[in-house]
Amino acid sequence: MDSLKTLKVLGVAGSILIFLGVIPYFSDIFNSIGGILFFIAIYKTGKILRDKSIFHKFFTGFIIEISGIFFGVAIVLIFFPKFFEFKSYISAIIGFLIIYPFIIIGSSFYKKSFVLIALHTNNKFFKLAGSFMFWGAVGIIFFGLGLILIYAGWFILIKAFLSLPNKIRREESGRADTNIAVNT
Fold it and tell me: Smallest Cα–Cα separation from 117: which of 153, 161, 150, 64?
């Protein structure tokens, strides 16, 4: 049986590594390992809380974002092959405008996943982190200022996972068996 103690370690470690992913030269390693640990933490959260939609919403958001990035890059490479010569700012702007809606939609699914965790655990930090990440994704268009909100969201997720108890009573997790409408 998965324990919340293991979940806390995975969630905190994954969040910290992703948060530290801005460090030059180590960003790929930190983001990759942190992402894997965080995915496992979200999966285990859904399993412990008996709500598969927690992971499904998070995974859906991830697939939407990755698909958007691949689609945007493919469009830019096909129609603007001089993109990598750094002479064409127009192609970079077009690529961003293609990818941007996918990032917002994906972030909305992350937010829904975090809201479900907040409802099941009565931990407001998950909902707050989801809101920061969503509005950060929306705010990226403002000269990247939304990135500050996204990183604040990751920091709040560290606090959210640290705030989880080491054990959960079954009557608390019983709420996971009911269908909860998430209006976000």
Answer: 161
Q: Could you write out the three-class secondary structure of the chain?
A: CCCHHHHHHHHHHHHHHHHHHHCCCCHHHHHHHHHHHHHHHHHHHHHHCCCHHHHHHHHHHHHHHHHHHHHHHHHHHHHCHHHHHCCCHHHHHHHHHHHHHHHHHHHHHHHHHHHHHHHHHCCHHHHHHHHHHHHHHHHCCCCCCHHHHHHHHHHHHHHHHHCCCCCCCHHHHHHHHCCCCCCC
Q: Give residues with Cβ within 8 angstroms of 138, minimum separation 6.
A: 104, 107, 146
pLDDT (tens digit per residue) in 14-64? 999 998 888 888 888 999 999 999 999 999 999 998 999 999 999 999 999
Threshold 0.85, pTM exceeds: no
